[in-house]
Amino acid sequence: MMQLSTHDIRHRWIVVTGLFFFLAINFADKALMGLAAEPIMRELGLTHTQFGRIAASFFLLFSLSSLLVGLLSDRVKTRWLLLAMAVVWSVSQAPLLLAAVPTTLVMSRILLGASEGPAYPVAIHSLYKWFPDAERTLPTALLTIGAAFGAGFIAPVITAIILNFGWRAAFLTLAVVGLVWSIVWLAIGREGPLESAGDRAPGALVAQAASLEEKIPLRVLLLSRTCLGCNLSGFAAYVVLALSTIWLPSYLVRVAGYSLMQVGWIVVLPAFGQMVMAPLLGWWSQRLMKRGIASRHARGTLGAAAVVVSGSALLLMPVLPPGAALIAAVTVGFSLASFAFTTGVALAGEVVPARQRGGVLGINICVTTLAGLITPAVMGQIIDVAGDALTGYRLGIALAGGFAVVAGVASACLVDPAGDRRRFAGLASTCAQIGAIPTTFVRNTHE
To answer: Which among 360, 340, 338 has a CA at the least distance from the CA of 349?
Structure first.
């Protein structure tokens, strides 16, 4: 396995810091729409259904761009892909300053979503070029914290800008911050030295001396138990995330009766929960693996359990009155599920050959983020067709919670990275016997 130089070991944490703020800005852009929901609906005269569809337009090209750029990341340096995305998502918000009408808002959100869609998989792909498999859970969790920081801790600042200068000023502020990040990334962004499967996991075996690594058929990878399980829990986690970024602020204003400024501070709590729990669960997962616990449980079961607990908290929200209990349910419900993203990409990194990792991560993100396209629109429709808005808000939250519980349990039953690796190795061996492919992808099932 390639050994990192002392300089590389130091610099990789600089890269992690850059990626942390990259995802922070990315998720602040997502959260802004929810925080500005009430002023936007009021100014533009939108119904909940109309606003939900506008919010969902962000995800119209989100999944497709995740797939295409994910595949492109196997061929183009991630440094330049990350830079291009940050520049485009900053520029995409400029039209709102000139003509803030529903059509302009939709077009801006579509372009913003297309440029932000691949952000997480490409950032992870970049990160994994700096860390071998056994060391990935903690830095991946730190990137998840970056997302939480953007979605929550920046919320009071964004809310203050909205209340004092209007929602357009908030969009402008984030656009400028994105351009500043781009300039800094030009100075610190680099490609990591770990590219091959041998660098990716301790004990990885290569059966031939050739430098090429075997490619497993994409269909086989995507239909593996591990990928299916991770996509299921990831989809459920994204349902929770979409509710958090688009509808949670309105829920707290309309149902619980909090002011917008109070909501700006309340949504900090789920972000704080993520910032505490993500590294704690990441450390626990990594510790379990070092003690010999199979990653099926150390990663798969732990990530699925986070989704189940999150869904359970959402189920409680509609029956809780405003106060400490409701805020606690909001904190737990919208903080834990995101750990499924951390474990999901780590599990995919175990079973997918390095040269195919960017593409598979892109496809997985494409699948899970479909929840972002569906959830805001469905929630808006539920609110409008219910007997009254309060009933609609409560019903939508409860349905999302129930789905998360079921999906988490199913994911825990499906994930099996060791079994998938054995199956891939057997497939390579069988195909080699008939001259179809060389047996170069033989992984160590060290669990």
So the answer is: 360
CATH of 6-433, one of 2.60.120.580, 3.40.50.720, 1.20.1250.20, 1.10.540.10: 1.20.1250.20
Sorted by where each begins, the domain ranges of the chain are: 6-433
188 vs 170: CA distance, rounded Å: 27
Which three-class secondary structure state does DSSP give residue 72?
helix
**pLDDT tens readout for residues 13-33:** 999 999 999 999 988 888 888
Q: How far apart are CA 226 and CA 352, in angstroms?
A: 10
Q: What angle do CA 314, 26, 223 make, to 5 degrees?
A: 65
End-to-end CA, the chain: 19
- Residues 6 or more apart from 362 whose CB is under 8 A from it? 66, 67, 68, 69, 70, 71, 73, 118, 121
CA–CA separation, 121 vs 230, rounded Å? Answer: 14
Torsional sign, CA 367, 179, 275, 310? negative
> Whole-angstrom Cα distance, residue 373 to residue 357?
24
Model-level pTM? 0.76
pLDDT tens digits, 403-421: 999 999 999 999 988 888 8
What the block records as the tokens of 261 is 């400024």
CA angle 128, 131, 134 (to 5 degrees): 110
